[in-house]
Structure formats: C-alpha cells, structure tokens
Automatic annotation (TrEMBL):
Residues 29-250 form the Glycosyl hydrolase family 36 N-terminal domain. It is an enzyme of class 3 (hydrolase). It comes from the Bacteria. Belongs to the glycosyl hydrolase. Residues 615-686 form the Glycosyl hydrolase family 36 C-terminal domain. Transmembrane segments: none annotated. Keywords: Glycosidase, Hydrolase. This is Alpha-galactosidase. It comes from Streptomyces rameus. The keyword Nucleotidyltransferase does not apply. Coiled coil: none annotated.
C-alpha cells in the first residue's frame, strides 16, 4: 500500500507490520524518513516537518540522510550513481514527477536529459527497490556505477553485522560481528554470485533468534556484485548495493537507451532472526520462485554414483533401484554428451554420446517414465572445453583478451553470452535437446569464474559483465516459455550462483557439492537465513563420504539431514544392501508424508548446529515437524530439552516420533516443549493438533 501526503512530497509504503517513508524537501532533496514499525501517514508527515540537524564544517547536511546519494555536490558518502559524459561528471538532478501503478511507486528525476527513476514496491513486509537510468540526451552516457538502492538505518549504538561467507564445499556459513566505523564490503568479482558470499546481510543490536529488531537486505543479481555497509561518523548506517564489483564501468548508454538495475530488497522485523527469515521465505514463495506452491519431487542424481563413467544400461539399472525406493525424478548428470569421458572434453557439444546412448536420450527417458519417474539431465551451457567441436568451430565465441593467454579453469573457457550469435546457438541447441526426448528437468551448472573477460572488436567490452547475466536470464525465460513442463535447478559448483535473481527463474538450487550430512547442517542453517527449504536441494549419498572427507554416518542421519530441504539421493544404489534399500524406502515414504510441511511451512531454527543437539521445526496449519540431530554428547550429559515454536500454547498436540529409528522417548508438555533422551543421532518428530 502506498500513501501520499496532500502536497505530493511525502510517500509512505506499508505492509502488515512495517512501514517505509521518504520525503522530498523544499530544495528537491530526496530524504529518508523511516524504516521500521508500521506508522500512519500523519506520523510520516510529522517526521518530514522536523528540521535537519546542524552539521559541522567539513561535513555534509545530506550525508546519511539522502534516499539515493548521487555523485557530485555536497556529498561525501559512497555514491549510488556515478555517470560520465564527454563534457562532465556527476549528477545534478531535479525532481520531475511521481506516479503509482498498482503497488509500485515511481519517482522521476532529470539531469539535462538523463532521467533517473526510483522504483519502490512493498510486498508483504519486504520493500523491493530498483532504479532505471534513461538517456534522453543527444550524447552518450557512461554508467560507471548504478546501484539498485541505498538503505538507511536509524541512529543506534552497537550495531552487529551478520553475513553468509564460505568457499566451495563450505558455503553459506553464518558469521556475526560488531559493525565498526568505516566501510565493510562484500561481493563477487567473479562474474557470478560466488561461493564466497551470498548477497544478503542483516543488522541488529541485540536480537536473538525469536526476539528483537533485525534489518535485512538481499540483492537479486547473478553476476558480479557489491554491497557496501558504512557506519558514518554520526553513527548512522547506510547500505548501498548493486550489480558490478567496482566502478570501472557497467554500460555505455547511447541516446534513447536505458538500464534498469536488479532488485535490492529489504525488510525490517521485530521477530528476531527467525522472524526475518520467515518473512524472507514467505516473500520468495509468493513473489519470486516459479510455481512455488508445487511440491518438489524426491530426486535421484547419478553423479556421485558414476561420475563420468556412464551408459544407458548402467543408468537404467540405477533407475530401477531408484524407483524401488520411491524416487520420483531420475537425473542423468555429467557425461551423457559429446566426447565427455572426463572434464577435459565435450562441453558445448549438446548431443548424446553415440557410444553411450546410441539412440539418443529418448529410450532411457521412456524407461524412466515407465518406472513411474520423471526424467532429467545435467547441462553447463555457458562453458566450452577447448577440446570440443564447438570451440574448434568458433574459438572467437569465448571471453578472451587479445594477445593474452586464454586461462583454463577445470579445462574449460567461458562462452560470451553477450554475443547474439552465441545466445542464438545455445537457444537452438537446448531447444532441440528438450524437444528430442521427454525431458522434465534440467540441472544447469556453471563451474568456473570469469578470468579473461574480454571481447575483441567490441567498442565497450566491459558491458559483457552485465549483458552475460541478462542473456542468461533471457535464455532461461525463453526455454521456460517454450517448455513449460520442464523444471530447472541452478547449480554453480554447488552454491556458487544462489540469489533472488536466479531463483526467479529456477525451481530449486543445488546448495553445495558437499553432501556430508554433518557439514550440511551448518550450510543449511546459514542458507535458511534468507532462502526457504522449498528450494534447498540436499542428497543422501554413500558412507564413507569418499567424495569429500571419508566420514562415516548412519543412513538415518544422512536421510534426516537431507529431509530438511528438497530430498534427493545420490549414492550408488546398485551397491546398497537389501536392508539399506528397505530402510531408504521407509525414509522416502516418510518424507513424502511430511513434505508439504517442510517445503511450505514456516521454519523455526530451534537449536543451531554448534555441537550437541541441533534441531529445526516446520509449522503448517495444524501440523508441525521437528528434525533433530544429536552430533555429540559429552561426559554422559543428557540431551537438552527443546522448546517448540509457532504452536498454540492453549492447545493440545499429539507428538509422534517416526522413522523406526529411535532409542529413547519423546516428551511433550502442552505443546510447548519436547525432550529427546537417550543415545539418539537423528530423528523426525511429527506433531498434530488434537
């Protein structure tokens, strides 16, 4: 909802529990007023009437108060907008107009033909912000930087900054530290979202998991990005973020051209980190994730079972075992195409290997469908091996710098999707592939970073950093429109491309290449700070975990760990014993029963995975599910009690431990507490109101 003051210079956006207000001063300075608890328009007008505080020499009256600081004038904070023409630098804008369309508020400013439009939309309690820059002048304009938003937080002492950091196989690890004066920068200069940071952060002063104020921001962009958090000299905090890591140039806008930033979304919550997470999850299920109301199927993926050594009959044997334990989607991973017998060849040649699939993929897909499962494949369309038919035909199609060595990572190069001929080739090959067999699912991978981001012959080669991502989005959109029955998963060596932008075009994401069930607890704990279980793919693989660390874990621990998101299986089922297959079938059956609650319910993180007992709870209507893992016990100490959340304290609930794996008891007291006792390493507890 958007409320507008009578003079048309104060705007208030409100959701169920929060409000966001801004005001245009008499000098046409756009000032931030309020972001926090819900308030009325009259309250916002009263805030607008307050005079700006005084300032000392060498300080700016605008710093820390402007809604979207631009380069130029009496400003010394980080500018969100930086432009160049042949004659001048910086921006001197004037307010032109405002308009509303549905839920969106648009504020238009002008600087001698260069229009800047600020977009606002409140969805639930999440504020979506983005900016459009339109070149209406007769000269070209270089956009050095165009951030999506600057967020301003109130004056507080003792701010803490939470972020998700990591690396390959150790993504999404949560860390919290005091925010100090100066700037903190997170981002990616790698051409994709990156394993090192998810584009999300949260700030608080004294919040717990379920209590206290939390401000959060998340960027919807799948390329290089940057978010800067600055604590200013007067203790105010501003957060500025958008596409691109540095200020070396985004795009060159010719007359008549425009650029719209990705969405930079933000929220305020007084329900602690858990309340903020649940708001993020509800927002993504309602407004970001395609077909979010549908359950994601139980998946089998062949990678850890077979690696590159695959054949039609071998995959068919795995499919039969997968069907027997209740799998609903069978996915053939890397190795089905071209000369792909290792990671050294074949990328770019998206036709089935004739020695492995002599009649193409259709016979195997038909056999999988005959077993009652859907059929999926792995692709990595943005990459090419030098040892491939595609590269031999078009070596100029890759990103490269003239006169410099073409850097190979994982024996592959990055295709320049900013080129129209490359985009059209990929569309034709992938469209033909999806039409050649009854394919229901595509795992879309991206296994290396940009290193030689050059474009010989292009007048402004820097634009490939932005145009590559726009081309990826357009290709996914086009494929989804042409093949509406096909689901897509985003993967990038695990969790290297997870953000609100790619999630708006894919059905789920591969959280990490690390399938160790104990490591996954910490990865999933961090991931759910921003993203819902509905998109969090997790697999049960073999023990010992030969792919990573050699750790031995029970089948029940592996299943309960993976059941916290979208359940998948990735072990070599042809080597599993009859007992293991029988137990796996029971776990899959149980997951299908609790799946609606896990994938669509509200998530409560009951105890973090810091050792000892870890537990999460999902609540949907009258039902709840608790997943708990006992990682270790010291000195014979009893397992601590766990307080449940999200239930009616006046109601009674039936509590049932399931899975036939427990050794101990479950205690329930008026729907408020449950205790796990005994030598127990993992369990599923189902709770129903009676």
């Amino acid at each position: 909802m958007v409320d507008i003051a009578g003079d048309g210079r104060t705007w208030l956006l409100s959701g169920p529990g929060s409000s966001y207000a801004l005001h245009l001063s008499a000098a046409d300075e756009l000032l931030h007023l309020h972001w926090g608890p819900r308030l009325a328009l009259a309250d916002a007008e009263a805030l607008a009437a307050r005079p700006l505080p005084g300032y000392w020499p060498f300080e700016s009256p605008l710093d820390g108060r402007e809604e979207y600081p631009v380069e130029g004038g009496p400003r010394f904070v980080r500018p969100a907008l930086s432009v160049r023409t042949e004659e001048r630098r910086g921006t001197e804008w004037r307010f032109v107009s405002y308009e509303t369309e549905g839920e969106e508020l648009r504020l238009r400013f002008d600087d001698d033909g260069l229009a800047v439009v600020l977009h606002y939309r409140m969805r639930g309690d999440v504020v979506e912000r983005r900016v459009t820059v339109e070149n209406g002048s007769r000269a070209r304009v270089e956009l050095l930087r165009a951030d999506a938003a600057t967020w301003t937080l109130p004056d507080r002492e003792g701010w803490r900054l939470s972020q998700l950091h990591g690396r390959w196989a150790a993504e999404s690890r949560l860390t919290t530290a005091p925010l100090t004066y100066g700037e903190k920068i997170i981002g990616s200069r790698r051409g994709h979202t990156g394993h090192q940071h998810l584009p999300w952060l949260a700030l608080d002063t004294d919040a717990t998991e379920e209590h206290g104020e939390v401000y959060g921001c998340a960027l919807g962009w799948s390329g290089s990005w940057r978010i800067a958090v600055a604590q200013l000299p007067d203790a105010r905090v501003q957060i500025t973020g958008g596409a691109g890591y540095d200020d070396s140039g985004l795009l060159l806008l010719e007359p008549g051209e425009s650029y719209t930033t990705p969405v930079f979304a933000g929220l305020w919550s007084d329900g602690g980190f858990g309340g903020a997470s649940r708001t993020w999850h509800a927002y993504q299920r309602a407004h970001v994730i395609p077909d979010a109301e549908r359950d994601r199927p139980v998946l089998f993926n062949s990678w850890e079972a077979t690696n590159f050594d695959i054949s039609e009959e071998q995959q068919a044997a795995l499919a039969r075992r997968a069907a027997e334990i209740g799998v609903e989607l069978f996915v053939v991973d890397d190795g089905w195409f071209g000369a792909r017998t290792s990671d050294r060849a074949g990328l770019g040649d998206w036709t089935p290997n004739p020695g492995r699939f002599p009649h193409g993929l259709k016979p195997l897909a038909d056999r999988v469908h005959g077993l009652g499962m859907r059929f999926g494949i792995w692709v990595e369309p943005e990459m090419v091996n030098p040892d491939s038919e595609l590269y031999r035909a078009h070596p100029d199609w890759v990103q490269h710098q003239p006169g410099r060595k073409r850097t190979e990572l994982r024996h592959q190069l990055v295709l320049n999707l900013a080129r129209e001929d490359v985009r059209e080739y990929l569309w034709e090959r992938l469209d033909a592939l999806l039409g050649s067999a009854p394919i229901d699912y595509v795992k879309w991978d991206f296994n290396r970073c940009f290193t030689d981001a050059g474009w010989p012959g292009e007048a402004y080669p820097q634009r490939l950093w932005v145009d590559h991502v726009h081309a990826l989005y357009a290709l996914l959109d086009r494929l989804r429109a042409a093949h509406p029955g096909v689901a897509f998963e985003s993967c990038s060596g695990g969790g290297g491309r997870i953000d609100l932008g790619v999630l708006s075009r894919t059905d789920q994401v591969w959280t990490s290449d690390n399938t160790d069930p104990l490591d996954r607890l910490a990865i999933q704990h961090g991931f759910t700070q921003i993203h819902p279980a509905r998109v969090m793919a997790a697999w049960v693989t073999d023990s010992p975990n030969t792919q990573l660390n050699g750790r031995v874990s029970s089948l029940r621990f592996r299943f309960v760990s993976a059941m916290a998101g979208v359940l998948g299986v990735g072990g070599d089922l042809t080597e599993w014993s009859t007992r293991e297959l029988s137990e796996a079938r029971r776990w899959v059956e149980l997951y299908k029963e609790i799946r609606p609650v896990v994938q669509h319910g509200e998530l409560y993180r009951l105890r973090p995975p810091t050792g000892g007992l870890s537990a999460v709870q999902y609540v949907l209507g009258e039902e709840a599910v608790v997943l708990a893992w006992l990682q270790a016990q010291s000195y014979g100490e009893p397992v601590p009690a766990v307080r449940l959340r999200g239930l009616d304290p006046a109601a009674s609930y039936e509590c049932r431990e399931t899975g036939e794996v427990h050794r101990g008891t479950v205690l329930l007291h008026h729907g408020l507490r449950t205790g796990l006792k005994g030598d127990l390493d993992a369990t599923v507890i189902r709770i129903r109101r009676v």
